[in-house]
Amino acid sequence: MTEQSGQSPALDNLSTESRVFPPSAEFAAQANASAQWYDDADADRDAFWATQAERLTWANKWSRVVDWDDAPFAKWFVGGELNVAYNCVDRHVEAGLGDRVAINWVGEPGDSVTITYADLQRNVSKAANALAELGLNAGDRVAIQMPMLPEAIYSMLACARLGLVHSVVFGGFSPTALRSRIDDAQARLLITSDGQYRRGKPAPMKESTDEATAETPSIEHVLVVRRTGAEIPWTEGRDLWWHDVVDKQPDTHTPEAFDAEHPLFILYTSGTTGKPKGILHTSGGYLTQAAYTHNAVFDLKPETDVYWCTADIGWITGHTYIVYGPLANGATQVVYEGTPNTPHEGRHFEIIQQHGVTIYYTAPTLIRTFMKWGEQIPAGYDLSSLRLLGSVGEPINPEAWIWYRKHIGGDRIPIVDTWWQTETGAIMISPLPGVTEAKPGSAQRPLPGISAAIVDEAGKEVPAGGGGYLVLTQPWPSMLRGIWGDEERFRETYWSRFADEGFYFAGDGAKYDADGDIWLLGRIDDVMNVSGHRISTTEVESALVSHPSVAEAAVVGATDATTGQGIVAFVILRNRPEGTPEAAVSELRDHVAKEIGPIAKPRQILVVTELPKTRSGKIMRRLLRDIAENREIGDTTTLADSAVMNLITEGLSNKP
Ligand code: 6R9
Fold first, then answer.
1. What ipTM, to 2 d.p.?
2. pTM of the full structure
3. In angstroms, what is the span from residue 364 Cα to ligand 1's centroid?
4. Domain contains 517
């Protein structure tokens, strides 16, 4: 651990929680998952995963389940060939399920579209024909920055169908962030929209993607979906309307089979340095684990369930649990475009009631927001269709878990707290509904087929009751295959910490309770988790110091009752800014939003004259966190100048 590391004290009391919720006999009797799976997977891991891979339709069968000879570069289902889009779309139509609703799309302003699997096949085929006509070839990269529109899903599946590698960039990311992702992947095409509906109003999108593509030589075309109908800037020759290029295409397209290890997508995520990492996922193993976990963890019954994952497709949760997992399993799902409080704070519950949602998967930050809005809001709706709830993105505190169970789940249905990462591709640690006795706040046990452990500094597993680093001890099918264009960083980030043991280092702290169940404690590196979004402290610091009036900046994630962590920045200004300090602070917040995106806007910026540093010059974020969280300042003996903390606290006029 570095000097700046340390767990959030708010999370330390998690393992004192002792309530247990056994599955109901009713649920257990109909559950997809079985306790036997743990034994099966332990007895023969490869055979277990081979069985899971049978969930998919392969054009050519694999000859070997996993090849780990060239670790940490894994190959799964060696020699197997499949088409990912065929598996998510066509095979359901061929099985006679063309009339089944794949997506009940709900627009923020109240418009809606019902998309059956047959519709999906036609729309994905048209999009694939259009991308092929634009001259894109298997292996080429396509960037997508779009709101939650059906066309975003068609685009992803059209890429998968043609073997193109998509890189979806969250709609809230700034032009600068989009540009660096396009450049890193050398994307040839950008797919976007004219605008988006956000908090009840049309908001621009094309203006900002134009700012990004002004300096991206690799981009040949920008394909634009019309959503808001706003007037937008247009570059003749480069820009193409989706309705001009896609609508006229034939609605059939024959998918080609690709190698199981053919790249499927890149998704950028924050690391401990300023530069985001392009996490690379491939086809066969990824889809196998997406389908398996979506079936087992959510207990999906495709004939009767209505599933809803509230994530954005710009994040891994949207990739695996809106697009690939549910569609590979032939699920019927709700996809919602907008914000949860537009036009009112009951919007999600209204959608659950209206569509008869049975499985609801969301993030703790939203649950805590619902808590703040009040239990009378969900109480005003009929939520009796729900039969399973899920949580993802950050540790869920027991109180939020209990509230979720009581006020949304009617005190009767299972909750699955699912731990995983962009890098793991799919769920890794989670209760199995109908099997596991749930403990509020614990992700509990690695899924059958997954091997995780909590180890100490030396890589030795800690005993029951002990805490340490979470590691993954065996390769898994949906594991990342690398960081795009940076093999060294891949080895260094994930595989060097426990190189002798060959463990994957997740970057999370965790504890075992007395029963050996796992409790996640949050990141142990300099990655913050704000509303389930990963943002690195370095990234925000770089954005701040890129402003001419900032001399130095240090950023910490402070515990926040709603968002998990909030970003608190300490800045030393270069020269006395003109105008009020408030104006300077507000300008800096806007500057960060412009550099990275609104999600990275600091909750607070504190102007200071000094920063606490060790003798080797490392900023002691631990001490800054004490200030940000209003605590007694901790041990300052390693400070180069012990008077600094007094200087900082005395100088703070706007103490948090
Ligand atoms: C899927 C996703 C990954 C980081 C991960 C951890 C935190 C996610 C969690 C959780 C505790 C859970 N995290 N799920 N912590 N309990 N159920 O969120 O991916 O955006 O890459 O974030 O999120 O810290 O390391 P990603």
1. 0.99
2. 0.89
3. 11
4. no
